[in-house]
Amino acid sequence: MVSEIELRDIHPKGNINVPSSLHVQTGLSIPKTVRVKSFSPDEWEEFTEEWASHLKNKYVTVRRFSGSGDLGIDIAGFCSDKGFEAVWDNYQCKRYGHPLRPSDIWGEIGKIIYYSHLGKYLPPRKHYFVCSQGIGTSLEQLLNKPSELKEKSIENWDNYCLNSITSTAETPLIGTLRAYLDAFDFTIFSSKSIVELIEIHAETGFHSVRFGGGLPYRPNPSSPPTIPTANESRYIRQLLDAYGDHLGSNLPDADSLASHNLYRGDYLRQRERFYHAESLKNFARDTVPSGTFDDLQNEIYHGVIDVCEDYHLNGLARMKETMKHATTIAATSNPLVTSIKTQDRQGICHQLANDDRLFWVPDNES
């Protein structure tokens, strides 16, 4: 007898939220964890290098080891200039088609035991296992039971370590090596989840390019200090020369503007614009790949240089026309475009003047 079949209308749920125009153009976004799991070998290597670059903020030195003679080390973070002779951490990164299993790590643990026993390096303070598919439940549970992890390492030594740690000789777990393993601190072994890797990666300048989603919120720029810093000396000198060229007098310093209220106000605005551009430069350093801000500066430069080199009545007119034109440059190809303000474009002109790439009074030799 055929069982009863329930027939119902088709009602796709779709997206829970109201879709935006971006969803219509590109479809629903793929979760970052899913994207990491689908990385090709080359993409995984690039991603690993990218998040590992942030470790430089945590360690004195970070090095990547590769090849058959890596001694069980992948990414080493050194806490001092003594390298392997002092405190260091190891990040062992794997790309498999499955979440990391206990059978995937016995050989790696064996290498750490063997080579630290030989004195090739001090045991790492922490040894993190990292995998493109994440850490399997059974391994995660085992890593949280150091005594059991030690027992299992001993049980699996012959199958995974005896003939694989070196290609020239067997490494039986006997004598001083066995005694060394028995005394070894297995609490050093732990893991980093894909979510943790993404969180680390989010602190680098590669994140927005790798995963999209736009740039983070840009903080407001700091106000210029009352006394200019040494970093401002060149563009301020050019600025004062531009005022002096217009007034027909020499202005040795900013105090000379005290009797010129109109230019005193302009001077303060120009410094604010410079600090806007400096804040964008710092923002770019933390959110986009190296060189992105330099590319923006070059685009502004090529957009204004012809205007700057045209005939102008005086240096102040040249500066004003150049900066006015800078505000019209779209820079839509630059990843920073969504974070750029008018003051940034103007401030970049002062950065270029600071580097002697733009001159308001070309014949001035001061």
From TrEMBL:
It comes from the Bacteria. GO terms for molecular function: endonuclease activity. Keywords: Endonuclease, Hydrolase, Nuclease. Residues 232-360 form the ABC-three component systems C-terminal domain. Pfam families: CTD6 (PF20282). This is Restriction endonuclease. It comes from Proteus cibi. The lineage of its organism: Bacteria, Pseudomonadati, Pseudomonadota, Gammaproteobacteria, Enterobacterales.
